[in-house]
């Protein structure tokens, strides 16, 4: 309408339209729109190109984003630090950290000052690769450029150190962060708590949790989840339940991870009736159970030989609009085999294929073991060969089952 009335749309108009298309997820349409307006002689600025580059990076089209950087240069529009940051962030997220570092060198070479976002993206990329020498060099560059790391930068470093089981260094990094005037946030504490739980030191994680009050930080759902999972793994289910109940008093709504963790802990401690009550309560008042939650209950029911109840639960998944995965079928097939109901197990195996689910080595081994223990060794032998001919990796467990049966 603007064009038909003889008006000339400006850069803001064109950029707004491109941004709208990108926000809607129609990045390709935004690119086509760019090509059309440039062909008509319209000039765009760094904000216009930044909008497109950002959209392309978000959908993983880094190569096309590079093309647009070149087009900017052709249009005599110089990329600024924001556009370089978009590219560096996109490259790092796709694992091209060396290429991102090359762009960083280009920024410095052009006399553009890297900012906190530039350094944080690169540090995140190198941390994910475990390249600590490069991380140290970037931290030194930040000091030289008088760019102070923020809480987000420190959290990335602490997270990487915890995941690499360098917990002492993670603590030192947290102390350094405080010395340099940065206040730890809920992410900092959650990260350190996760690190301790990774070491199965849930007591130290709890001490950190109790320090939230000192720092006037409010624990979030993930703070509770980390500790609940830690307690459950340490078979301290009662302490996990106390925390679970405490969440309700602090007006925090447990999510499906919380419920699944507690249900799993209850099942593994033999308190299946309590787990079933909690599972039923989710349906009535709580987050919708996912496939993982159902699988936990299926596994528990099969282990206590309540196969018929497990089948009812399995069918309930379909009624609730959930699609069982390979693990769901494996649990039931193994349960049937252990109960010597091998024909029903074979029917489930056929159903998997009908639903385009690819059986894995666990599926085959359960069936081969069930067939052998039912005296149907020839059928087990046929299934073993079908597994081999179908390209499924045959592991030592498969051989051991058959060797034992033949012996």
UniProtKB/TrEMBL annotation:
The keyword Repeat applies. PPR repeats lie at residues 10-44, 45-79, 80-114, 115-149, 150-184, 185-219, 220-254, 255-289, 290-324, 325-359, 360-394. Gene3D superfamilies: Tetratricopeptide repeat domain. The keyword Transmembrane helix does not apply. InterPro entries: PPR_rpt, TPR-like_helical_dom_sf. Keywords: Repeat. Transmembrane segments: none annotated. It holds the Pfam family PPR_1. It comes from the Eukaryota. One of its GO terms (molecular function) is mRNA binding. Belongs to the PPR family. P subfamily. This is Pentatricopeptide repeat-containing protein. It comes from Phaseolus vulgaris. The lineage of its organism: Eukaryota, Viridiplantae, Streptophyta, Embryophyta, Tracheophyta.
């Amino acid at each position: 309408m603007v064009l038909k009335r003889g008006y000339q749309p400006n850069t803001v108009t064109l950029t707004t339209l491109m941004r709208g298309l990108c926000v809607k997820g129609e990045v390709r349409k935004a690119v086509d729109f760019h090509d059309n307006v440039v062909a008509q002689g319209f000039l765009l600025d760094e904000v216009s190109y930044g909008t497109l580059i950002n959209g392309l990076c978000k959908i993983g089209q880094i190569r096309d984003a590079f093309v647009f950087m070149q087009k900017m240069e052709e249009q005599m529009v110089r990329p600024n630090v924001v556009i370089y940051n978009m590219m560096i962030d996109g490259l790092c997220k796709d694992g091209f950290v060396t290429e991102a570092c090359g762009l960083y060198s280009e920024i410095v070479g052009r006399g553009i000052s890297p900012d906190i976002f530039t350094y944080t993206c690169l540090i995140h990329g190198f941390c994910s690769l475990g390249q600590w020498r490069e991380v140290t060099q970037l931290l030194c560059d930040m000091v030289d450029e008088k760019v102070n790391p923020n809480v987000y930068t420190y959290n990335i470093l602490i997270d990487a150190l915890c995941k690499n089981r360098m917990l002492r260094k993670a603590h030192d990094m947290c102390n350094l962060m405080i010395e340099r005037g940065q206040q730890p946030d809920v992410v900092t504490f959650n990260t350190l708590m996760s690190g301790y739980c990774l070491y199965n030191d849930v007591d130290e994680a709890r001490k950190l949790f109790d320090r939230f009050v000192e720092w006037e930080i409010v624990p979030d759902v993930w703070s509770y989840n980390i500790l609940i999972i830690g307690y459950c793994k340490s078979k301290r289910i009662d302490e996990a339940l106390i925390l679970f109940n405490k969440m309700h008093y602090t007006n925090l709504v447990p999510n499906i991870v919380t419920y699944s963790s507690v249900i799993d802990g209850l099942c593994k401690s033999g308190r299946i009736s309590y787990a079933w009550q909690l599972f039923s309560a989710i349906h009535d008042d709580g987050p919708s159970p996912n496939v993982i939650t159902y699988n936990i209950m299926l596994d528990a029911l099969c282990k206590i030989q309540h196969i018929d109840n497990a089948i009812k639960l399995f069918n309930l998944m379909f009624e609730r609009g959930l699609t069982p995965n390979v693990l769901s079928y494996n649990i039931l097939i193994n349960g049937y085999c252990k109960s010597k109901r091998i024909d029903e197990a074979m029917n489930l195996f056929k159903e998997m294929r009908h639903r385009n689910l690819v059986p894995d080595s666990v599926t085959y081994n359960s069936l081969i073991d069930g067939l052998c223990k039912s005296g149907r060794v020839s059928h087990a032998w046929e299934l073993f060969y079908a597994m081999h001919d179908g390209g499924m990796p045959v592991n030592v467990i498969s051989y051991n089952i058959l060797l034992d049966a033949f012996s």
